[in-house]
Automatic annotation (TrEMBL):
The lineage of its organism: Bacteria, Bacillati, Actinomycetota, Actinomycetes, Kitasatosporales. It comes from Streptomyces bambusae. Belongs to the thioesterase family. This is Thioesterase. Residues 2-222 form the Thioesterase domain. InterPro entries: AB_hydrolase_fold (IPR029058), TEII (IPR012223), Thioesterase (IPR001031). SUPFAM superfamilies: alpha/beta-Hydrolases (SSF53474). Gene3D superfamilies: alpha/beta hydrolase (3.40.50.1820).
Length: 234
């Protein structure tokens, strides 16, 4: 089974570089790079639902008509949820066999950073710093401010648009994962995803803060879940 993965705001796909060796057998990791970053940095960034769905039409080719799962981390969770709701609009033959989200309250939950898209640079950096989302040692005008902050700001705009356009629960098994020390999408906040599926809902907690996507526990958990739903699909 292929697992298509979407990263957190401001990121490319580097957070998933260890996943292929950690998810275990029978699972093929497909990190999805959104435009406006890394090798796609010259392409216009996506800031709305319709533009996102046009971008995600390529997922159909990537999964090739086979059963597939989606994982999204933080902002990526909203991307994965949106794709699961609108799979047919993007040319996919079926809904995912599994929707997994991490470090993210549900669309009707409180998202502390989403409203920060229109803040000044100084205010936005201050807000991000409070939640540990700014690397140590960055200074105004440096490479991080020039290359990452604009991407992060547009990703927050996309998050706000996707929250506003959320259409209701999916009929897909849903796995919601929280970091035990995550100030943005902790265990209580993530539990709200149970209202957003009419199928089976499972909630798990792993060690770490908001960026536990880089640790080993999450890909192993997603790999096990993908193998379970693959057996059910067969």
């Amino acid at each position: 089974m292929k697992v298509v993965c979407f990263a957190h705001a401001g990121a490319g796909v580097s957070a998933f570089h260890r996943w292929p060796e950690l998810v275990g057998p029978g699972v093929d990791v497909v990190p999805w790079l959104l435009p406006g970053r890394d090798r796609r940095r010259r392409e216009p960034r996506v800031v709305g639902r319709e533009g996102l769905l046009r971008e995600l039409r390529g997922v159909a080719d990537a999964v090739g008509g086979q059963p597939y799962a989606l994982y999204g981390h933080s902002l990526g969770g909203l991307v994965a949820y949106t794709l699961a709701r609108a799979a047919a609009e993007t040319g996919l033959r079926s809904a995912p066999a599994l929707l997994a989200v991490g470090a993210l309250p549900p669309p009707d939950g409180v998202a502390a950073l989403v409203g920060g898209a229109e803040l000044s640079d100084g205010e936005l950096v201050g807000l991000l710093t409070r939640f540990g989302a700014v690397p140590e040692g960055v200074r105004a005008g440096d490479v991080w401010h020039r290359s990452v902050l604009p991407v992060l700001r547009d990703d927050l705009r996309l998050a706000a648009a996707l929250k506003g356009a959320a259409g209701g629960p999916v009929d897909v098994p849903l796995l919601a994962v929280a970091g035990r020390e995550d100030p943005l999408g902790g265990p209580e906040a993530v539990a709200g995803w149970g209202r957003w599926t009419t199928a089976r809902f499972v909630r798990r907690t792993v060690p770490g803060g908001h960026f536990f996507v880089r640790e080993a526990a999450l890909p192993r958990l997603v790999g096990r879940a993908a193998r379970v739903v693959a057996r059910c699909a067969r």
